[in-house]
Amino acid sequence: MTWNVYLSGEIHTDWREQIINGAKGLDIAFNSPVTDHAASDDCGVTILGAEPDKYWHDHKGAMVNAIRTRKGIADADVVVVRFGDQYKQWNAAFDAGYAAALGKSLIILHGPDHQHALKEVDAAALAVAQTPDQVVAILRYVIEGKL
Hints:
Blueprint: E1 3-9, H1 15-22, E2 28-31, H2 37-48, H3 54-75, E3 78-82, H4 90-101, E4 105-109, H5 119-124, E5 127-129, H6 132-144
Parallel strand pairs: 1-2, 1-3, 3-4, 4-5
């Protein structure tokens, strides 16, 4: 059985690549949102037409991006959500809540500095990891049953 793992969250570090590379040999299909920041921000107006108001510019992009996000989370066996140090990832928190509402197995990934701020998100998760290697170890364990 191929496991579907959705990798959500911050786009400014290589954590996705670390997990994908670390999980080589496991029967996993990885999926994620569009991680090209400019494309993600501007997809709505590029495809559907310019907006003079930044609110509507962002709204169009969020709606177009939600098509991919909803499909990826809905099809996932496991959803990994990474909260980075550099920016506040409100979209990542939304993805974690959406995944939890759908009853998805949720792994949260963040450093110790976010423990208090993410306590409700962490409480909805089945695991809270601090490194991509820990996420890989969890995936390896649940798929192969080996430590």
